[in-house]
Design goal:
- This protein has five helices and five strands; from the N terminus they run βαβαβαβααβ.
- By secondary structure, it is an alpha/beta fold.
- Helix 2 links the parallel strand 2 and strand 3.
Length: 139
């Protein structure tokens, strides 16, 4: 069996999520179980991706229809706990072996926004088995 990797698509501009999605579709076409967890994005971004189901499972724990950075400070505070719950779900998915590939879309923004810290993200990475892949995006 092939060794799993952690990939990071980072930076300004476009293409990070697209690159992660390309890898997810490729893995799903090979019969692998793929989870995509989206952070900080509005629900409209998730609607199109839901067409990839059931081969690729899409998760989004935030309740707001809007992107996180457009929310009022009060609404952002409400969403922060949902986002932290999502990180716990990501860790559980790896620990239990529910997926072969885990895409954490815009998770780097969660750290940048101060919602979680680098240690929280490392805890997710440390839950990875040698054969699971993780892809992170963000800026």
């Amino acid at each position: 069996m092939e060794q799993g990797v952690i990939q990071i698509y980072y930076g300004d501009g476009k293409g990070k999520t697209s690159a992660a999605l390309g890898n997810a579709i490729k893995a799903a076409s090979l019969g692998k179980t793929v989870y995509i967890i989206q952070f900080l994005k509005g629900q409209l971004d998730s609607l199109f991706l839901s067409k990839l189901e059931p081969e690729v499972k899409i998760f989004r724990f935030e309740r707001s229809l809007e992107c996180f950075d457009t929310l009022s400070p009060e609404k952002q505070n409400e969403e922060k706990q949902n986002i932290l719950n999502c990180l716990n779900f990501a860790k559980k998915a790896l620990v239990t072996g529910e997926c072969d590939m885990l895409v954490l879309d815009e998770v780097l923004g969660v750290v940048n926004e101060g919602i979680a810290n680098a240690e929280d993200l490392l805890n997710v990475f440390n839950a990875k088995t040698p054969f699971e892949d993780i892809i992170c995006t963000g800026n």
